[in-house]
Amino acid sequence: MEKLGLSQIYISFQDCEVFRCEDLLDKRKMSGLTELKESLLCAIRNYIPYGGLVHKVRILLLGPVGAGKSSFFNSVRSIFRGHVTNQALVGSDPTGTSEKYRTYFIKDGKDNNTLPFILCDTMGLSEKEGLDMDDIPYILEGHFPDKYQFNSLKLRPKGIGNHTGCPLLKDRIHCVAFVFSANSVGQLSHEMVEKIKRIRRELIKSDVVHVVLLTHVDTLDLITKGDLIDVYKCVPVKLQLEAVHRKLGFALSDIFVVSNYTSEWELEPVIDVLILSALKEMLRAADDFLENFPLEKTVVNALNGEDAAAAAAAAKSLQSCVTP
Ligand SMILES: Nc1nc2c(ncn2[C@@H]2O[C@H](COP(=O)(O)OP(=O)(O)OP(=O)(O)O)[C@@H](O)[C@H]2O)c(=O)[nH]1
Ligand SMILES: [Mg+2]
């Protein structure tokens, strides 16, 4: 200060305001994002489940009430439709709370074909009410049909879905995506943490591959749209990733950050890339599950399903394993 000749100047700071400028996405970044989006769209459209064992993989969205499960389905559907749509009801009041089990097929706006995955949306987990833990094995094995109404009486109709005692491979869940909100994961109650850990233990026991979706990143303090390009390097996001890892035990590399379409009118490449990247990882996880699924069971399942192509694919893989 003295060197600058400022020693005599008395400066008093009474308030300190920190501003952060919303950085505009420049053209170069935008064209990179558009290219990345196109390559992700192409990979997902052309995805064929491992070994052709099923036509479409089923991804189960599981997580606390209000985490953004239904919004994630709406976001994926919006991207493939080419405009923002809201098929599933969402919201924080009871009208937007999911009470039925929904299995959503998504049509690609480009050619009107259904995409090779099904997003299965459940009732949210909560400390007292919400999804019944006893329902989870039924969901995983594929016993619940679309629009199944969860009920608190634990009465499950006999012969529900394909409940023949031997569920079909095509009907069961191939990947679970746990969904948490980035702005509340640090405040998950002890009961909720225990519930999630219990589900995770069960999944590990039955070899069901799972990943984590961290929604609501757009609402974290100090996050701008520009940050979403390199979101994993962003300090507020890193802190939340570490919180999920520490509290719930998920590997950091299995946690994917997204920002759902909830208030936007138009699609934005930066948001699309996050959502499509997470979806691509889910398809990979589903492949890991199919690859490790016991082959004998695969053949039985495929034959029961009268799916000749899947049965042939399964029989071929089985033969290649037993033939020296
Ligand atoms: N800002 C922001 N809001 C989100 C995001 N995802 C979801 N929301 C909002 O969070 C609220 C709950 O979202 P839902 O998609 O209904 O959550 P859910 O997990 O399906 O909730 P349940 O069906 O009750 O279990 C809604 O008001 C959404 O608009 C996100 O990524 N960012
Ligand atoms: Mg919902």
Draw up the topology in text.
Blueprint: H1 27-45, E1 57-62, H2 69-81, E2 100-107, E3 114-121, H3 136-141, E4 148-149, E5 175-181, H4 190-205, E6 210-215, H5 235-248, E7 255-257, H6 269-292, H7 295-304, H8 308-322
Parallel strand pairs: 1-3, 1-5, 5-6, 6-7
Antiparallel strand pairs: 2-3, 2-4
The structure holds guanosine-5'-triphosphate and magnesium ion.
Magnesium ion binds next to α2.
InterPro entries: P-loop_NTPase
Organism: Bos mutus grunniens (Wild yak)
GO biological process, one term: immune response
General description of the model:
It is a single chain. The protein is of the alpha/beta class and 324 residues long. The chain folds into two domains: 27-293, Rossmann fold; 297-324, no CATH class. It has eight helices and seven strands. It has helices spanning 27-45, 69-81, 136-141, 190-205, 235-248, 269-292, 295-304, 308-322, and strands spanning 57-62, 100-107, 114-121, 148-149, 175-181, 210-215, 255-257. Strands 4-2-3-1-5-6-7 form a seven-stranded mixed sheet, with helices on both faces. Strand 2 and strand 3 form a beta hairpin. Helix 1 (27-45) runs parallel beside helix 6. The protein is globular and about 80 Å long. The termini are far apart. 38% of the residues are buried. The protein binds guanosine-5'-triphosphate and magnesium ion. Residues 69-70, 98, 121 line the site of magnesium ion. Magnesium ion (MG) binds next to helix 2.
